[in-house]
User: Fold this.
Amino acid sequence: MINARQVIESGTNILFVTLDSLRHDVARATMHAGHTPRLAALLPGGQWEERRTPGTFTLPAHMAFFSGFLPKLPTPNQPPRLWECRPPAFKTVDEGTFVFDAPNLLTGLGQHGYRTVCVGGVTYFSRETPLGSVLPDMFDEDHWRPEFCSPEPDSTRHQADHALTVADQYAGRPLFLFVNVSATHVPHGHYLGDSADTWQSQAAALTYADEHLGRLVEGLVADRPWLAIMCSDHGDAFGEDGYHGRGITHPAVMNVPFAAMLVPAGSRLPSHGLTP
Assistant:
């Protein structure tokens, strides 16, 4: 169990990664095939938890995450929440939950001295449209470039490089670093030679991203521990039961991978050499 209240009150840095559109079954199959060794070395027990997303596409899912509602287990009983907005007086909150007295997590962390930084991926973080400014506006600062977005085959490398640069700039204060990994969002057929977008090409995208996510985590924890949360915001249907895309309550969309872990300083994650 992670005591997020103690973690945040101590000023421990936090990395929150969303692997956009990644289905749980794809994440699990790619892990079992041995194609994501860096994530396997990082995740508790070398496995993803299967959870249910609170939103069926990027905007509502992330609004829920930043309001305190992370994906839930598909069981009646739930573990204590990592963070939660201050509830009504009649509700009891676990002592390990970080309670923020603010309308969202980012503002609440700022009240505890954190700098909140977003390294965007998909266009909901791009400020190219009015909706594309809603999520970035919640952070102290946000970063997005076209090479961070899914049409760029090497997007995760660019995002990891930029995230490490940002972390270096704030080495002296608590940091909440959010990265929305776009590689697993359509289009990802280019990871299999410009094929159609399928669960196989999403698995290939995750295989690619694994190398750079491992490099990102290693770089961040080189000299201090971090709390890391990794999950998907939603899945994607590739023709199951006739459905395609997201924004629907199909199991392919609702079932997402999740992991939370305290990563010790100096942790090393094995490379695999499978990066396209």
Remarks:
- The CA atoms of residues 221 and 265 lie 5 Å apart.
- The helical segments are 4-9, 24-32, 37-42, 58-65, 105-110, 155-169, 199-220, 251-254.
- The longest strand covers residues 255-263.
- The chain has a mean pLDDT of 96.
